[in-house]
Amino acid sequence: MKNLFLLLSVRILAVKNGISSAEPGARKKAIVMIAVGLGFWTLMFVLSSRVLSYFRSTEIIGDILANYLLSMVFLTFFGLLIFSNIITSLSNLYLSNDLELCHSSPASLEEVFISRVIFTLFDSSWMVVIFGLPVMMAYGWVFKPGPLFYFDLFHLGLALAIIASAAGIFVTVVMVSIFPAQKTRDIIMIFMVFAVIALYLMFRLIRPERLVDPDTFFSIMQYVSVLEAPDHPFLPTNWITDVLWSHISRREGESNLLNIMLLWSTALALMVINIWMAGAVYFGGFSKSQEAKRRRAGKGFLDMAVRLMKKPMGDDDIGAILEKDVRIFFRDNTQWSQLLLLGALVAVYLYNFSVLPLERSAIRLDFLQNTVAFLNLGLASFVLASISVRFVFPAVSAEGRSFWIIRKSPLSIKRFLVGKYLIYIFPMLLLGEILIIATNRLLDVSLFMMILSSVTMFFSVFAIVSLGIGLGALYPRFKYENITQVSTGFGGLVYMIISALYMAVIIMLEAGPVYIFFNTDLYKRSITSGEWVMISGSFILVIAITLFTIYKPMKMGIEALKKIE
Amino acid sequence: MNIIELINLTKRYKGLRAVDSISLKVREGIVFGFLGPNGAGKTTTLRMMAGILQPSEGKIIINNMDLKENPEEIKRITGFIPDRPFIYEKLTGIEFLRFIGGLYGLKRVMDLEKRIMELLEIFELDHWCDELVESYSHGMKQRLVMCSALLHDPKVLIVDEPMVGLDPRGARLVKDIFRNEAKKGKTVFVSTHSLDIAQEICDEVAIIQSGRIIATGSPDELKRKAGVDGNLENVFLKLTEGSMLAHEKSLSAS
Fold first, then answer.
1. ipTM
2. Which domains are assigned to chain B?
3. For residues B187 and B194, is the Cβ–Cβ distance under 8 A?
4. If you ran DSSP here, which 8-state letter would residue A298 be given?
5. If I label A235, which of A197, A371, A374, B77 is the partner at 20 to 30 A Cα–Cα?
6. What is the chain A residue with the closest CA to B137?
7. Where are the domains of chain A?
8. What is the 3-state secondary structure (H, E, C) of A177-210?
9. Is B102 on the interface with A (CB under 8 A)?
């Protein structure tokens, strides 16, 4: 097993060297990322603590709710961990570049496999641990269990992570022994997208908002029955929930030995089963994943889509970029499948507006409708920015290691970025207007509000797309395994913050004029000359800020991309 | 007439001078070999000539135009073949060439489809042209990049380590193509550390070591300068050894 430690030390050395040889800006980026992470961590802790304190103060159902939440948290994390392990183990066990070196070395198959299992366990679990910790700490803060709670949380959490990892790796090894690794990844990615959409739609359609309004239920029994956790005595999440709940509810006399033994014996047994299975089928799967397959390109639909989209651009260099981008987008399963997620997001967004209980409010209906419509402008822009960070922001990085082709070509960087801009502006405009007009129709807002919000959205989209392309060029990442990694990096975070700031400023500037228009309409009076000055000033500022946000990021992106080496 | 002129070209990376004030003149219509050991600065020089890297100092003049002043015009008349063929994996071979044709605006000036098919046949990729690039071998990708570099019939071809990943048949084909291009009046600037190739196809060579040009001339002139008989390998070893010693002496003196 001495080779196992050698194989593991490579990763430790890489991390160490990555930190020591970080570029000058990297420290600043790390500080910002840590600050944002800590902010998020604190927010999660505060929110969870408040929810749990509220539960604790509620008689009869308070404990049921806290137990239900604990069970749901573990169930959700367990599911996420299994999915994450499936995807990560595919890379670590079959697709990583250094695997050829490992398999050609005198290290045994088991040593290579176990080292990769440890990488997979770590890569998949750290994020869930970070997000889960504030919730667990909130339980500790609110219910004040004994120190055994923290000890059991630590070692049983590890056992749960090992079980999820072993289950994920098992699925991967079995799938790759049936399909090639590349195809398995595609199948899993599409399956994951469908699973997320199904879960998302299911969660939305059960209308969880009813839970905070028990009046809508006939009896307390009906309410409690809705809260029955979808847990099962054979699920490891049930075992860990039971142990931790016994500490939280201070049932210290209760023996947890059976549940603890169940968790650890399952974790160890699954590890042994996986190593045994790896000996039988892992190398066969790895070998198959190295074989190149002839992959035919899809025709028909794609050709038609390209012809249609290219028509306004013509056959010049920008047309060529568009054609390339569209073909690559629809041939990459990790890319086009995200469109389905986008569809679900928009559908639920619109559904939310259709079930808003505005008529039950004590405030005047027309005033409320228009206020919600105005706030919706910010919300819709945020949805658009979230979509943009996934599709528009990575547009430059999507060139990947082939970016040299663009650099070598006579196409200037400015024209290249303008081309990318033109590719994304039309679909984003369409989406933005659909969101805003459809929600305004559902809210039945006044004509003034309809015009104001659709015109604001129209111009904001130009700024949001410009921010996406410009900052994407300012923070490009040409070396990635999966394009989705680009959006989740530092640049993506900066993009989301600046987009949110931009929209907040626009909404604040427009709030004044909107208030004046409503007031004059309500009290049937005319607008004073001072108010006209204020209205004009606000709109001039909105136009100026929008023009600046369209121009500046693109300019900065062009300059930054010219200097890239 | 000189088609390429490098004037005090320098590239610094965090204090390291990867290319150290080199000056070169290359005549039109020849195959010019750029030789040097690993890490000598060959790829950096070529990437600066292709307009992919910005020089820290100095000038690159191609076809009497300064690359810094007229990057687009120069890129229109040069072709670049990098040592590692990173290309869009999700395009087919023919789609990739059409994309390149679009970038260079070739549809307006030639029968692009005819030209693409010609090149695919020459590089024996015609049967693979409808397959995705991700299914190509390294050598096939390299040949596809060569097709793309020749698509717009460039006046100057800049080639970095052309034989990496090519089988003997492919290597022969590429050597013939370079010689033919030179015969047609085109200039091929090729970097290599394979001295056999340099001896076989180059009219003139320059040897670069530690970022500096240590010798230029035809293979025969270099043999005379170095005072050795035999092939270019002896010349190369003699010249680089001398330069290495001088470099070490200057380091120990400082």
1. 0.82
2. 2-253 (3.40.50.300)
3. no
4. P
5. A197
6. A292
7. 2-289, 332-563
8. HHCCHHHHHHHHHHHHHHHHHHHHHHHHHCCHHH
9. yes
